[in-house]
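I have been asked to look over a protein record a colleague put together. Alongside the sequence sits a line of tokens, each denoting a local backbone shape. I have pasted the whole thing underneath without changing anything:
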Amino acid sequence: MKMRMILRSALWLSLSMALGTLLPTMAQARPKPGGSGSGCGYNVNSTLFNTDSNNLPYQIMSDGLGTYSTFNVKHNSVSSTIISSCDWELDTTGSTTRGISLTFIPVDSSNKSAPFSGPETVRARIVTHCTTNPNNNNLSLGTMTYVGQTLICPFNVGFYAGSNWYNIGLNPNNWPGTTQAQVTCQGVSGGTCDAWTIVPDPTNLFTDPSTGQSSGIGELIVPPCVGCSGGTGLGLYYFDDSFSINK
């Protein structure tokens, strides 16, 4: 009996020592929120401005109800987040009270493919895709680190017009003739940016002859499904816009 107790104590001591070695390693390996150890995946406040410095309306603007913040109540939700990829997403597709206002001004005036001319407030989702631009060295909003730092980023606006889903692609790699956005870090906390502005890429602007605005250009697309990339392009449209995001 005494020998059995000694052996049991020795086994318990060995197991304790092994756990003491393994548990810190397991804790260090646990990924941070947002996946891939990025630290991303958190809510932000998003402001879509409605007019430029000349008081001309933007083509992508707010619904007039102020800043967008994440909320989720029964059958009504908005998501305003730096997502796990560290890109920005503003999603009002699940909301009955908030939307995004869009206006379509075709580059080719004979193009009548848009479902409306606008401005019209629709359920929509805006997503940046900064890491898909190789010039950004895999950086995105949530991994920018100093005030004044800029990235040139593709982005997408998906929206419902009635029951039909459309995309606006601002990504010249996928849609020739389109432009991108410039993301600028406006504030830093804890070593990473916590405030940003987004405007059309200032190095690649076109004058909208109907408004005189210096604008970016996007392709209106009918995708194969909601949330899918690719699809049928319906022509190029002018888009001027200005967004502000803060943690």
